[in-house]
Every structure is written in C-alpha cells, then in structure tokens.
C-alpha cells in the first residue's frame, strides 16, 4: 500500500509515521518535503514563503509520482497545497497535478487538530494560521473538494490509539 499521513503542523504526523513504520517493517518511509529539501541544501524562509511552499509541493509531487509500493509518506501533496492556498489563492494551477498524484495513494490518514490540542504550540507560532491550514486541508480531503474519492482515515486519540486505527484499517483491506 501507499499511505500518506496528512495534517497541519504539530498534530503528531511524524510520530505516527514512525510508530506505524515500527509495526510495518517492510514499508519504506518518506520524510516530509520540507526536511528532504533542507537535506538537499534548500534554504527556506521563516516562515516559508509562497516560493518555498511551491518548492515543497513540487518535491512532494515528484516523490509520490516516483515512489513504488509499501510506502509511508510523512505529508502528502494536499498538505502542501493547503498551505499554499492559504497564502496564495491563485495557487490553483497546482490542483490538477495534486489531484493526479493523490489518486495514486491507497490511503490517506488525516490527523486533525484535537480539542484540547495534544501538542503544545510554541508561543511564537500563529494559531490562526495553523487553524486556517487545517480547515483548508479538511476541505480538500474530508469534504473531498479535490474529487479524489480515495480512502481516508480520520486518526484521533493518543499515539497508541492512532497507530491501532491505522493498523486496523490496513488489515481490514
């Protein structure tokens, strides 16, 4: 299977990917595009600019397009598209390619912001921006604004509960 873990920053995606990877040793993990670009020497602004998100989206798309089976993706193209759309509503040029890449996935695990928030934000982080990205991503995936019609799992609870939900969904297939 090709499984992407989706959600805004600081919701526990990376931890969830790591724990699921521990349980599924045959799977390869793919780091989020920001980290991959950083390892390649790309210097992003802080906070990331529209151009930075475009670079991340391009990296995400290429990675999804070129990856084989049994892969766990930390983030998916829809994540980066949501960040981009919140910053630049003219970013719609990316929608069709994002849709095509997303449709190659077997499962998207959407990790929501929970109430109360499970992961504390640093005082310098913009809660409103994080919420706006979450809502835009929810529209893209949960409300299926992209017209993906792919399997979506809404993961919730603590890490152990989330891992159990993902593993149960995989074995139910």
Polypeptide structure, described:
The chain has 173 residues and is of the alpha/beta class. The protein has a single domain, classed as P-loop containing nucleotide triphosphate hydrolases (Rossmann fold, 3-Layer(aba) Sandwich). Helix content is 48%, strand content 12%. It contains seven helices and five strands. It has helices at 13-23, 33-39, 50-66, 77-87, 95-102, 127-141, 159-172; strands at residues 2-6, 28-30, 71-74, 107-111, 152-155. The protein has a five-stranded parallel β-sheet, with helices on one face. Strand 4 (107-111), helix 6 and strand 5 form a beta-alpha-beta unit. The chain is globular and about 40 Å long.
Descriptive labels:
single chain; about 170 residues; alpha/beta; Rossmann fold; five-stranded parallel β-sheet; 7 helices; 5 strands
Radius of gyration: 15 Å
Proportion of residues in helical segments:
40-55%
Question: pLDDT below 50 for ≥5 consecutive residues: which ranges?
Answer: none
Second CATH tier, the architecture: 3-Layer(aba) Sandwich
Q: What about the largest sheet?
A: 5 strands, parallel
Separation, N- and C-terminal Cα atoms: 10 Å
Average of the residue pLDDT scores: 93
Q: Which H/E pattern describes the elements?
A: EHEHHEHHEHEH
What is the secondary structure topology, with strand pairs?
Layout: E1 2-6, H1 13-23, E2 28-30, H2 33-39, H3 50-66, E3 71-74, H4 77-87, H5 95-102, E4 107-111, H6 127-141, E5 152-155, H7 159-172
Parallel strand pairs: 1-3, 1-4, 2-3, 4-5
Helix pairs in contact: 1-7, 2-3, 3-4, 3-5, 4-6
């Amino acid at each position: 299977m090709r499984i992407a873990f989706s959600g805004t920053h600081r919701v526990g995606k990376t931890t969830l990917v790591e724990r699921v990877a521990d349980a599924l040793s045959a799977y390869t993990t793919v780091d989020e595009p920001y980290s991959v670009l950083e390892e390649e020497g790309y210097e992003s602004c802080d906070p990331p600019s529209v151009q930075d998100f475009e670079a991340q989206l391009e990296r995400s798309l290429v990675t999804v397009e070129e990856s084989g089976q049994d892969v766990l993706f930390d983030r998916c193209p829809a994540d980066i598209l949501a960040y981009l759309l919140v910053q630049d509503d003219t970013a719609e040029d990316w929608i069709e390619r994002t849709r095509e890449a997303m449709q190659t996935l077997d499962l998207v695990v959407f990790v929501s912001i929970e109430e109360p928030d499970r992961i504390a934000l640093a005082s310098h982080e913009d809660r409103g921006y994080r919420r706006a990205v979450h809502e835009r991503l929810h529209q893209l995936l949960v409300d299926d604004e992209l017209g993906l019609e792919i399997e979506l799992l809404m993961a919730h609870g603590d890490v152990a509960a989330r891992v159990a939900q993902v593993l149960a969904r995989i074995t139910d297939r």
